[in-house]
């Protein structure tokens, strides 16, 4: 079992070879991130790449009229800072902490040095391939989220959102307000209240004062649309869990 404060609690860092892990470990900085903290703004080059261990980060699309919607979630299965890997630098969305916790961060220059696009040098091709597979999984999540928000009911969207969040934490309880959920789904708060009420009536969740507890995960999975399984299957296929994190 990997210690909670270990960098290897992050799936990507936990999959590193011994040599690469030893090389990067002195450069990894453990930081605590709080709910609502913005890791990077759209249009700006991030100073760090973040590898969450216990926090969860939302990739949020901001509209000029002040509304927003969540594109994807990043937990301990991934990293935040795709633009530094692809060479694009900036991103067109905001990265905001949706669940406080810990993360390891790596300075931009150190991360870029691992994959020097200009010289074609790569310190660890296996690590690069793993990150690229993560990018593919992330693209799937973003695309499926867009399709779900367009074609499925808010009841199904809420069920998917709850399951995706549960996958990125060890507890069956979410500390979250309906206002936050509405902002992430890009819908009215009243619609979230109605959908949550239906789930509660079916005995699948309880909701009180910003706390949602899932009482029956199998029951919740029976209510969700296919979007959840499409994304989960792709993540499981592309990002196998290291043996020491499986317990």
Explain how this protein is built.
This protein is α+β, with helices and mostly antiparallel strands and 247 residues long. The chain has two domains: 7-135, Sandwich (Jelly Rolls), CATH 2.60.120; 153-224, Orthogonal Bundle (Arc Repressor Mutant, subunit A), CATH 1.10.10. The chain has ten helices and twelve strands. The strands form four sheets. A four-stranded antiparallel sheet has the order 2-6-4-5. Strand 11 and strand 12 (211-214) form a beta hairpin. Keywords: DNA-binding, Transcription, Transcription regulation. InterPro entries: cNMP-bd_dom_sf (IPR018490), Env_Response_Regulators (IPR050397), HTH_CRP (IPR012318), RmlC-like_jellyroll (IPR014710), WH_DNA-bd_sf (IPR036390). It comes from Methylomonas methanica. GO terms for molecular function: DNA binding; DNA-binding transcription factor activity.
Q: In what order do the strands lie side by side in the largest sheet? A: 2-6-4-5
Q: Percentage of helical residues?
A: 40-55%
Proportion of residues in β-strands: 15-25%
- Radius of gyration of CA atoms, rounded to a whole number: 18 Å
Broad structural category: alpha+beta
Largest sheet: 4 strands, antiparallel
Integer average pLDDT: 90
The CATH architecture of the largest domain can be given as Sandwich
Q: Please indicate the count of domains.
A: 2
Number of helices: 10
| CATH H-level homologous superfamily name of the largest domain | Jelly Rolls
Through-space gap between termini: 6 Å
Q: Which outline best applies?
A: globular
In CATH, what is the class of the largest domain? Answer: Mainly Beta
Task: Provide the succession of SSEs.
Answer: HHEEEEEHEEHEEHHEHHEEHH
Detail the poorly predicted runs: 243-247
- What is the total tally of β strands? 12
The third-level CATH topology of the largest domain is Jelly Rolls
Keywords: DNA-binding, Transcription, Transcription regulation
Protein name: Crp/Fnr family transcriptional regulator
GO molecular function, one term: DNA-binding transcription factor activity
InterPro entries: cNMP-bd_dom_sf, Env_Response_Regulators, HTH_CRP, RmlC-like_jellyroll, WH_DNA-bd_sf
């Amino acid at each position: 079992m990997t210690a909670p404060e270990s960098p290897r609690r992050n799936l990507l860092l936990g999959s590193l070879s011994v040599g690469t892990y030893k090389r990067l470990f002195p450069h990894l900085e453990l930081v605590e991130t709080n709910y609502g903290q913005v890791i990077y703004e759209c249009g700006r080059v991030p100073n760090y790449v973040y590898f969450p261990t216990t926090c969860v980060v939302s990739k949020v699309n901001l509209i000029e009229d002040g509304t927003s919607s969540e594109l994807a979630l990043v937990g301990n299965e991934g990293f935040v800072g795709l633009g530094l890997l692809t060479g694009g630098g900036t991103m067109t969305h905001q990265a905001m902490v949706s669940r406080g916790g810990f993360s390891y961060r790596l300075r931009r220059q150190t991360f870029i040095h691992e994959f020097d696009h200009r010289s074609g040098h790569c310190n660890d091709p296996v690590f690069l391939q793993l990150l690229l597979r993560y990018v593919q999984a992330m693209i799937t999540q973003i695309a499926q989220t867009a399709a779900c928000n367009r074609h499925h009911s808010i009841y199904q969207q809420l069920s998917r959102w709850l399951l995706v969040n549960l996958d990125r934490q060890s507890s069956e309880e979410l500390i979250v307000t309906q206002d936050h959920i509405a902002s992430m789904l890009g819908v009215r708060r009243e619609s979230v209240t109605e959908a949550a009420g239906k789930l509660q009536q079916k005995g699948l969740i309880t909701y009180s004062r910003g706390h949602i507890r899932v009482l029956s995960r199998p029951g919740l999975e029976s209510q969700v649309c296919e979007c959840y399984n499409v994304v989960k299957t792709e993540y499981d296929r592309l990002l196998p869990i290291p043996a020491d994190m499986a317990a």
